[in-house]
Amino acid sequence: MKKKMFTLVMVMIAIIAVSCGKKADEASVQHAPSGDKFYYTTFADAKVAAGESGKAMVLDFYTDW
Amino acid sequence: MLIDSSIIDYFSNEMIFVKAHAEAADSLTAKNYNVSGFPTFVIVDSKGKEIDRIVGYLPADEFLATIEDYKNGIGTLDDLLSKADASADRSLYFEIADKYKYRGAPEDATMWFKKVISEGEPTDSLSGEARFALTDMKRRSKDFDEAIDGYRAIKKDFKGTALAETAGIYIPFSTMKKGDTANAIMEFEKFIKEFPSSVDVEYATKTIRELKGDTLDTK
């Protein structure tokens, strides 16, 4: 019984881990530049891309005024 | 908004470009990088460590050339500091001071601006620019009394030059920012009399009207 419970918990953890990983991938794809856009719109997203590609970044700080 | 095709090509392939709203989603990022003026373009490595920055707009080709230089360590703060060790070039010291100023490092900026002045004459043109930059830093840190004294000294020492006129308008401006409306009005009026053909006369005239309007409202 204990062994079955343990196995069930491990399978559930594995399912959660895979689905979270998928969500992270989907998130980074979702916020990447697309279409005519060549830029990221948040530093967090750009930092992920920079970490993956090893590319340097230019942060264009702006305001509405 | 950068829309030149060479810019788009470059940032689609060579580097990552982020438009970071300094007062919304990326306000903390702007604070972490000590960004106080806009636009500011901070060039960082893939881990987010600053390489250097560009403040203000440049033509597209100059913008890309500057970024390429910075990526290759040319003209960066580190590069200039290494050159300063072997050089007695006051213009170089000024560039270094300016870079520290824009990075929000006032103590380092002050040290290098003072070096510019001490290694020249206090009334030569480069000293004038350095003195103005130091005074401006006082104003931006809301040390208005010291700033006003600084602007007055520059106006006196560089009488007849464009620098004196620029210092001249910052006296009433700083007085106004200090909250001293009556003296600000008087100083703006004095500026208009002293520099009647200045491009800032329109601003001074408009501001006097606004300040007088505010003063009347409070009576």
Write the layout of secondary structure elements.
The complex is a heterodimer of chains A (about 60) and B (about 220).
Chain A (H helix, E strand, L loop, with lengths): L1 H29 L8 E2 L2 H11 L3 E6 L3
Chain B lengths: L4 H9 L2 E6 L5 H6 L7 E5 L5 E6 L4 H12 L5 H9 L4 H13 L3 H13 L6 H16 L3 H14 L4 H17 L2 H14 L6 H18 L1
Antiparallel strand pairs in B: 2-3
Helix pairs in contact in B: 4-5, 5-6, 5-7, 6-7, 7-8, 8-9, 9-10, 10-11
Tell me what you see in this structure.
The complex is a heterodimer of chains A (65) and B (219). Chain A has 2 helices and 2 strands; from the N terminus they run H-E-H-E. Chain A has helices at 2-30, 43-53; strands at residues 39-40, 57-62. Mean pLDDT of chain A is 70; it is low at 19-30. Chain B is built from 11 helices and 3 strands, in the order αβαββααααααααα. A two-stranded antiparallel ribbon of chain B has the order 2-3. In chain B, a hairpin with a 5-residue loop joins strand 2 (40-44) and strand 3 (50-55). Chain B starts with a helix and ends with a helix. The model of chain B has no long low-confidence stretch (mean pLDDT 92). Chains A and B meet through strand 1, helix 2 and strand 2 of A and helix 1, strand 1 and strand 2 of B. Strand 1 of chain A pairs parallel with strand 1 of chain B, so a sheet runs across the interface.
In short:
The complex is a heterodimer of chains A (65) and B (219). With 65 residues, chain A is of the alpha+beta class. In chain A, 62% of the residues lie in helices and 12% in strands.
